[in-house]
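We were asked to recover a plausible sequence for a given structure. The inputs and outputs are reproduced exactly as logged, with field labels preserved.

PROBLEM: sequence recovery
POSITIONS: 147
GIVEN STRUCTURE:
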């Protein structure tokens, strides 16, 4: 960030405060693409936008996003390894790394993984903080393998 130097010619600096920090408003399109009454689509703002983005990252597998083959957490790949040696820590690290790499608006606080190999499923709970606010959000996902 470029530092600004103010001089006396800039005006009376003693009477007014200089704001150098901006609060960012996060906006994303609602991925349900529900139609509003005015024929526009709804939008997600602030914490809801970040939560939708984190969920999208977690549910995306490698090579699903064009021109970015390593985008996503590739969690479905772990579902096929439930019968063999499987480490919950490896899955937790993959989730945290994917969010750190592709969502700069979120800071991961905790990742909780519970595998249920008898049901071919994994329960994932991700707790994260929105960077510009003090909002702490949690996402619960139940990933199951179809036979």
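RECOVERED SEQUENCE:
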């Amino acid at each position: 960030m470029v530092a600004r130097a103010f001089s006396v010619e800039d005006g009376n600096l003693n009477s007014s405060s200089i704001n150098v920090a901006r609060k960012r408003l996060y906006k994303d399109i609602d991925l349900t693409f529900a139609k509003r009454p005015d024929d526009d689509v709804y939008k997600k703002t602030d914490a809801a936008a970040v939560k939708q983005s984190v969920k999208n990252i977690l549910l995306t597998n490698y090579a699903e996003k064009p021109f970015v083959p390593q985008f996503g957490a590739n969690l479905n790949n772990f579902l096929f390894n439930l019968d063999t040696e499987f480490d919950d820590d490896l899955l937790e690290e993959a989730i945290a790394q994917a969010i750190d790499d592709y969502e700069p608006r979120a800071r991961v606080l905790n990742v909780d993984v519970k595998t249920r190999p008898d049901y071919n499923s994994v329960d994932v709970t991700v707790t994260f903080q929105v960077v510009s606010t003090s909002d702490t959000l949690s996402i619960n996902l139940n990933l199951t393998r179809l036979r």
